[in-house]
């Protein structure tokens, strides 16, 4: 046989050599069901922020996980909110809708044996969208009587989900099976990102998210979620990465809470964030934090725009 009849492309399609798959996956669900936790585990790295307080993810976060033959491109979305009165919530909802219209498959996360009105709302939001929806029942580690899972799954099956998969995002339970199933829903095609890339978000963004996570973790219900962090400096100087973070709050009282007695609270937030940053950026980090009052920003669409929450 003449060698020239075989093109390089044909040579790749040898038996047993599966074509590559690559596609976009949206993770949706009401606040606090474990979307960020799930994403972090699927990416095998801490990227999206998690917290016991709902609504800590305001940004759309894209993370990429690449195996030998599949590239999973994850999109984390904020929870769907029923309160439309504030512009921040409205923008979150618009983000969710625009995100789920633009993916190959949707992971709809719920928790334990619950099916709440808020879950029903999320279901309504995806109902008209021609994208397969995989229902992920998270936190099964908290279901004491596992025999109750099967009838619960049976009840949910009437909603015509493409798959129903129970997992524990925190414990990593059944996530490999989830990924295995998920990959069949991604289209065949070349990888869109370099194989070593984990996120297309900038390091600055990740630094801001880590600071915001520590604030939410340490202050819990003392502060509303209307807090934002701007990274004003991000420069590597020899072995040390210098990061300056500006924390913007709504009210003067919030500023005092954040700083704490003799600055102790802010110091503790900063050192916890620095520990995580050193792990994520693989370098020594010098972190400086400031707090500034920016009155009423959550209601001010122009301010949101300037902070990058709305694309121009
Ligand atoms: P999100 O608002 O949907 O992004 O939820 P998060 O990922 O921030 O998680 C909310 C809370 O649920 C956090 O305290 C997580 O540690 C917890 N959580 C997430 N997944 C699990 C799980 O599988 N089991 C248990 N027990 N807790 C979980
Ligand atoms: Mg989240």
Main sheet properties: 6 strands, mixed
Helix/strand-derived category reads alpha/beta
Estimate the mean pLDDT confidence: 78
Strands in their spatial order, largest beta sheet: 2-3-1-4-5-6
Q: Which ions, cofactors or small ligands are bound in this entry?
A: guanosine-5'-diphosphate, magnesium ion
Could you state the order of secondary-structure elements as H and E?
Answer: HEHEEHEHEHEHHEEHHEH
Radius of gyration: 22 Å
Quaternary class: single chain
Helicity range of the residues? 25-40%
Categorize the overall geometry. Answer: globular
Q: What is the strand tally?
A: 9
Q: Poorly predicted ranges (pLDDT <50, ≥5 residues)?
A: 1-15, 51-59, 79-88, 307-312
Strand content: 15-25%
- The number of helices is 10
Q: Gap between N and C termini, in Å? A: 59 Å
Question: In words, what does this structure look like?
Answer:
The protein is α/β, with parallel strands linked by helices. About 35% of the residues lie in helices and about 20% in strands. The strands form 2 sheets. The protein has a 6-stranded mixed beta sheet, sandwiched between helices. β2 and β3 form a beta hairpin. α7 crosses α9 (about 265-280). The longest helix has 18 residues, at about 265-280. The radius of gyration is 22 Å and the shape is globular. It starts with 7 loop residues before the first helix and ends in a 6-residue tail after the last helix. Mean pLDDT is about 80; it is low at about 1-15, about 50-60, about 80-90 and about 305-310. The site of guanosine-5'-diphosphate (GDP) has 21 residues, from α2.
């Amino acid at each position: 046989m003449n060698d020239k009849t075989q093109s390089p492309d044909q040579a790749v399609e040898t038996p047993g050599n599966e074509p590559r798959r690559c596609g976009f996956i949206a993770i949706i669900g009401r606040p606090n069901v474990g979307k960020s936790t799930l994403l972090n585990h699927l990416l095998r790295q801490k990227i999206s922020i998690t917290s016991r307080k709902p609504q800590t993810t305001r940004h759309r976060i894209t993370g990429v996980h690449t195996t030998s033959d599949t590239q999973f491109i994850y999109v984390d979305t904020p929870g769907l909110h029923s309160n439309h009165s504030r512009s921040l919530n409205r923008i979150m909802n618009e983000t969710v809708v625009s995100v789920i219209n633009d993916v190959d498959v949707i992971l709809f996360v719920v928790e334990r044996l619950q099916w709440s009105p808020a879950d029903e709302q999320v279901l309504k939001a995806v109902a008209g969208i021609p994208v397969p929806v995989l229902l992920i029942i998270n936190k099964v580690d908290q279901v004491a009587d596992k025999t109750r899972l099967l009838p619960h799954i049976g009840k949910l099956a009437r909603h015509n989900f493409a798959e129903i998969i129970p997992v524990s995002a925190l414990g990593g339970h059944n996530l490999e099976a989830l990924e295995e199933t998920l990959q069949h829903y991604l289209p065949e095609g070349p990888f869109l990102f370099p194989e070593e890339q984990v996120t297309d978000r900038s390091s600055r963004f990740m630094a801001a998210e880590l600071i915001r996570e520590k604030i939410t973790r340490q202050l819990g219900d003392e502060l509303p979620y209307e807090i934002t962090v701007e990274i004003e400096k991000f420069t590597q100087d020899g072995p040390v990465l210098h990061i300056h973070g500006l924390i913007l709050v709504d009210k003067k009282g919030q500023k005092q809470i954040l700083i704490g007695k003799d600055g102790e609270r802010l110091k503790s937030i900063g050192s916890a964030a620095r520990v995580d940053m050193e792990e994520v950026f693989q370098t020594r980090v010098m972190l400086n934090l400031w707090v500034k009052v920016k009155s009423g920003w959550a209601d001010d669409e122009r301010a949101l725009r300037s902070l990058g929450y709305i694309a121009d």
